[in-house]
Design goal:
globular, 24% strand, homodimer, five-stranded mixed β-sheet, alpha/beta, 10 helices
């Protein structure tokens, strides 16, 4: 097993200034798996859905090479549902509804065959469940990446800190980095957070790109300036999926390779926001991915020779 | 004459979360000239001060190679004064006082010897005065860069649009680009603004870097993540000064050279914010500038080979 992914598989209903959707499929693990599938086909997803989750969406995931042996289907229950409305700036949103449904009683079970993954992606979820997945593994993965959010800092900080202390890479946004560290300066915030356990911190800044920190180095990845951000839902998860997918493909966890992985992750996120939900992330051609990455290269390339 | 600089030379009193100053020297043209002085010593400044402006500060500017023949000194008047207080995020501020003093009656006169500059930097000032300076030149400079702010969009939009239509490069921040264009997407905003006349638009995003647009290309320059932003006053002016100073030094106004110029401008801005006022921008060693530029190179460098 190359990549084990844990997180929600869910329904979303989204309103943006450009329109609104009925229930469409979403969830952190869905975006992560789809984005990662462009880099490795050896992915196993651990999650839970209700009997209402469309069989054709599961088939779509399988067609992307995602193994669903770790996906529990509770036929008589309903899938996790989130509904939100984005403001005009597309950076802020109101949650209109959160129905936990099957997630409330979720007890993740990693199939026996997947308990020695090389890479583990812990998508946004209750920290105790993320921790439970780690505890089921027979040996430590080469790399564990954890994504989380402010909600868990507000409601389960101690459990979150315990989980964070055991991972290699933490991905959070700038406001969350400030909240978790109590530092306004992102440089200071990063150093404090790296003292909590992770060797690497990725701070996601949405349209302003992302920062990659270890204790000695920092890398700034831009975001592609887009004509329209149609729906930001899943951008962070797609970023994480592209990031860990590229690392799993190349089997190189050096800082230099993480720089490349962040560019691939940013490219996947830039697709996601172009349409509602996972629509743009399904069935991309390799050419499209390469062209998008080339746009990132062109965007930041400059040539200065200091004498 | 290589570079003609127009803008305010003034007093500021600044409060930040880190401390406060009495009246210290500031003004757009002061920061621009100092930043540019690290790249070219053929600079003439056109502005006005009162008799209260310290002679040693004028001497400091001269020591940086800035020709003050275009600086009017109104012995019986007071210099322009601005006072402001920055919020904790250092991105927003309240203006506590604005005393126009000598600026109210300022009639810029470019000395005869400086009426054929290769480069013209129109620092933030009433658009009518920026226009007046252009009208005094005997021939069109190789490049005219204009910096302005939302205040003139609110109070003198028509005059500003007329002035903008005659320049080559416009520098504004992201909120101003949105205001001027009526577009939220910066990509769309840039295309609309480029239709107003300038060939190149620079959108300054503070701690999030800067975007360089022409009609076909876009470049994203990062900002250096800093431990502390001590005082943001003059960062945009220092950026503009480094930008045009580098262009004046290299005499190359291609898009590729503008990318380099933005990195040098960003480096100068990163010094300015490290201390109050111009303190950090005075008497830098060439080594310090080069090291800072190298930090920018290291910050964004990655190496992806697409097959």
């Amino acid at each position: 097993m190359s990549l084990l992914v844990v997180g929600t598989v869910a329904f979303d209903a989204i309103e943006t200034p450009f329109g609104k959707t009925d229930k469409i499929i979403g969830g952190a693990a869905t975006y992560i798996s789809l984005a990662a599938s462009y880099f490795t086909k050896d992915i196993l997803l651990t999650s839970v859905v209700g009997g209402d989750f469309p069989k054709e969406s599961l088939e779509m995931l399988r067609n992307h090479g995602v193994n669903l042996d770790g996906l529990q289907i509770k036929e008589n229950e309903k899938s996790f549902f989130w509904s939100g409305r984005y403001h005009n700036d597309m950076n802020t949103r109101d949650t209109l509804a959160t129905e936990l449904n099957v997630i409330a009683g979720f007890d993740p079970i990693v199939p026996e065959s997947a308990r020695e993954p090389d890479f583990l992606m812990l998508g946004n979820l209750m920290p105790s469940l993320q921790h439970k997945v780690m505890a089921q593994l027979r040996k430590r993965p080469k790399l564990i990446v954890l994504d989380t959010m402010n909600f868990w800092m507000d409601t389960a900080l101690e459990e979150l800190q315990k989980t964070i202390s055991q991972v290699d890479v933490l991905t959070i946004n700038d406001a969350e980095a400030r909240q978790l560290s109590g530092e306004y300066s992102l440089v200071k915030a990063a150093q404090k957070i790296l003292e909590m356990g992770p060797k690497v911190l990725i701070i996601k800044k949405g349209e302003h790109g992302a920062l990659l920190f270890n204790r000695e180095q920092v890398f700034y990845a831009p975001a592609l300036p887009l004509e329209d951000v149609f729906d930001p839902t899943g951008a962070g998860d797609s970023f994480a999926g592209g990031f860990i997918g590229y690392l799993a493909q190349t089997k190189d966890i050096s800082f230099d390779n993480m720089k490349r992985a962040i560019i691939f992750g940013s490219a996947m996120a830039s697709f996601t926001v172009e349409k509602f939900g996972v629509e743009r992330l399904v069935g991309l051609a390799q050419d499209e991915v390469d062209e998008r990455v080339q746009e990132f290269i062109d965007l930041v390339q400059f040539d200065i020779s200091l004498v």
